[in-house]
Amino acid sequence: MIVSCVQTDPVKGETETNLRAVEPQVLGADADLVVLPELFATGYFFDSTEQAAALAEPVDGPTVRRLEAWAQQSGTTIVAGLAERDGDAIYNSAVVVAPNGLLGTYRKTHLYYEETQHFTPGADGFEVWTVTDRRRRSYRLGVMVCFDWFFPESTRTLALEGADIIAHPSNLVLPHCPSAMPIRALENGVFTATANRVGTESNGRESLTFIGQSLICSPRAEVLASAPDHGASVVHADLDPHEARTTALNPYNDRVGDRRPDLYAN
Q: Over the stretch 247-264, which tens digit does the pLDDT of each residue have?
């Protein structure tokens, strides 16, 4: 199957502009799974909670409807960041959209920097969905968002729940994630697909610069595809997700079976 990560350069607050910019990248990817960045349609570094709330949408709002149309038209599954509004709360979420509609939503567990001032952290834990590629072969898809990578428990939980591929919508500013993701993939025996953004945003008081370097990694710690640290782009990898189901390292060691959770501190 083909996995694509779309690296974007959005304009904060310009949802329609950002959707129009991404549409040809998604529809032209010719992929079974497309991963878009965190908060890809709204931008990230909000001036205030009021601005974040004004840009947030429910999961049946126009951004998800647009994603559903793209998924139906292309036959691909799309994972994309969303500023989600649910009642009075707003979440930094990712939606999983298949050709037949919305499959589910993941709300970011580990909020980073000023996200803690605007969003409610997710409290439902990590989930794995069974999805199919365009040839109707099933695989298991997990999702985490950006700073979740910093906590190894995130990837491990998804792996233990059976994920073959972990989609990772991101707005990375710290430099470490591109080096860490091959190890996250190796230690958990999964494929990872990190879709990041580029550009600089200001909240009126300070600025953040995003590092790009979107990448797709294999269970053998291989970087299968990577993007530059500047400029919008799309990267692709052709992979067999079922390779993630081989947990044995050799005749004597198994990355799941050798775990000693009875000795691990919480």
A: 999 999 999 999 999 999
